[in-house]
Amino acid sequence: xxxxxxxxxxxxxxxxxxxxxxxxxxxxxxxxxxxxxxxxxxxxxxxxxxxxxxxxxxxxxxxxxxxxxxxxxxxxxxxxxxxxxxxxxxxxxxxxxxxxxxxx
Length: 104
Known about the structure:
By secondary structure, the protein is α+β, with helices and mostly antiparallel strands. The chain has helices at residues 21-38, 51-98, and strands at 2-8, 11-17. It contains two helices and two strands. It has a two-stranded antiparallel ribbon.
């Protein structure tokens, strides 16, 4: 475990984690951007977020990032498979043109 310093809503927090530092900063930046959007009238004012709440929000944001990554991976696999399936169907249809089904 190592300590990583993050900044959310103008306040610094230290998080102990095994996660990649770059990834933790990405989550913290995303969280900071989203919360700033919600409280845009109060920009420039530092907010102290209770530590348990901050940790919960970071965990929820991490869950969101992981699900989003899994979805993108799933979507890519589906697109690849559907493309291959379309190629198989097209090849099958073109072979039928060469060898039409026999009529009995």
